[in-house]
Amino acid sequence: MHKSVKRISKAIPKLALQQMNLVKQLKQVKRTRFRTCIGIALLAAVLVSLMFSIGLYSNLQLRVGDYLYGGGTPLSNIGIISIDDRSIQEIGRWPWERGNFTELLGWLGESKVVAFDVAFFEESDKETDMALARAVHNAGNVVMPVEYLEFERRGDKVFGGDVMEPVSPVRKAAAQLGYINVVTDFDGVTRAANTNIQGDHVHFTHAILKQYLGRDAETKNRFLVNYIGRPGTYTRYSFRDVLNGRYEKDEFKDKIILIGATATDLHDSYLVPTSAGIAMPGVEVHANTVQQLITGKDLEVASSGMTIFIIFLVAIGVALMVFYLPMLMSALLSFGVIFLYVFIAIFVFDTGVILNIVYVPLTAIVAYVSTIVYFYLSEKKSKKEVMGAFGKYVSKDVIKHIMENPERLKLGGEKREITVFFSDIRGFTTISEKLSPEQLVTLLNEYLTEMTNIILKHNGVVDKYMGDAIMAFWNAPLDQPKHAERACMTCLDMEDRLKELQKKWTEEGVPPLEIGIGLNTGYAVVGNMGSFDRFDYTAMGDTINLGARLESINKQYGTRIIISKSTRKKVAELPFVMRKLDKVMVKGKKEPITIYELISTKENAKKWYFDVIEHFEKGFDLYMKQKWDEAIKEFKLADKIKKGGDPPSIAFIERCEFFKKESLLKEDVPGKDWDGVWVMKTK
What we know:
The protein is α/β, with parallel strands linked by helices. It is built from 23 helices and 24 strands. Strand 22 (about 575-585) and strand 23 form a beta hairpin. It is rod-shaped, with a radius of gyration of 48 Å.
């Protein structure tokens, strides 16, 4: 090879090296992205877990968790006799004369338990108090309230002191006593029954349960109240209606009847998870607690360990979705995870467990946003690097496919039908001798750049540069149904662009370049060939070898573009102008092939092209029949019609003259079984 050509070959970037670097880069990028995604997920999980551990947004969790409550059904054996506004209007200003309560007990003789959420702490008329005490004693099922005024915390226990109890006769007559202290959370919502106060009395609801069961019941420490519904869920009987005889005594048979204030002005109400802005009377808070003690449908907050485990699980799951799925799908699925988790939280709540529905959704959002931001930044950087490394050789569509499927660029190949392209500059050695190395590099780089751009425009893959030669192919790694058509259009566009460059080079005093192109369509093994450490993305097989031979034999006919029969078959129905050129046996092949010259598209074809083709193909048919003189006549007509002459016709005229001469000498004359195949002696 000429020294200048060698220097140029070294100066031109090698696709093989770039591809090897790209494969390593893509694999490394994918591994790095995966590790970083998991790292981001873990970091997000740790961050949210820390927020959870220190109680940040815990108030929000409580409020959001409140929406899980409700939807239950009250027990039919629990009722409330309400001291409501209508009763106060009829009976009189509160507090009432205690004889009203004595009379009320007369209507509740069939009840299982009567529990007063009404304080009888101050003495009134002694006779009246005694009458009430007798009624309480005779009922034998009355639970009376007490209230602690002082509290002292000792370790994890709370001790009550300075207790207020009902007046002595009533206290002694009561079947049970229980404290009615209601303690709200720091946000003002009552969510738990504070049954953990240590003292001389049990909780009011525990006293009710003991009386209801007729035996000592298992007491519980502080527990969450499973509110079954909004205020007013339980059946309420107006105090005045009961006294007025509106209800028969059977109405209260075997029921737990709680008596308490529901009138707003009495200020015995609390915000609860099911309030929805409406405070629940204290007596109904006790009713909910009693039902829970009876049914055993307790609530407990999911453990911190479980919550943190779910946080990490969701974070990693969201990160993996972002890593493996398209952005829109990962976004939809990430929010789907949130909705699914909330649905699960609602379902699990019915089993008695309150899942955290603030920190887990927050984890999904933080993990998604963090990984998306990372992917955006890394994708931008990666695309820039990959485009820089590989964008000179393949189209953007191919790059996109490779980036999405880097595993396609692994050692090994697949059998695919492709159209392979070879081009070479004619007389390049002679041209290089007339130019300095600097001029030659500039010229060749300009030529290769322009030709490469055209290949990429038609979504071809530039396999390699071999000095001044180019090898490319279509239909790999992407499927391209019209790969032969793309290759043909590439060749014609190259011719057009070369004509423009020739004018420019002539003006610059540079000898014009002429090229030869060969196209062949067939099956080849396409993939990365080489060692595990270094390999090229290339195509191999007889299809490739024949494509190279076709480019070379352009010299024999003075043509620029020769295509094989298989390529012509793919584009036969398309608007290309072609002519049957010859039937040849290329070096290294045992079977003859028919070759065609690709001339132009029908749209751009000159009218005289068709006359040239007509006479040439007539001449070729006569040539195959060994009618040398008649064939020469047709070839001469074709040569005459074409402006500047028709090199293929001239080549066949010379061939016919040769056979005529041999015929006269009776030497190398084709016989009767001659198939017209022209054997190529060189590559």
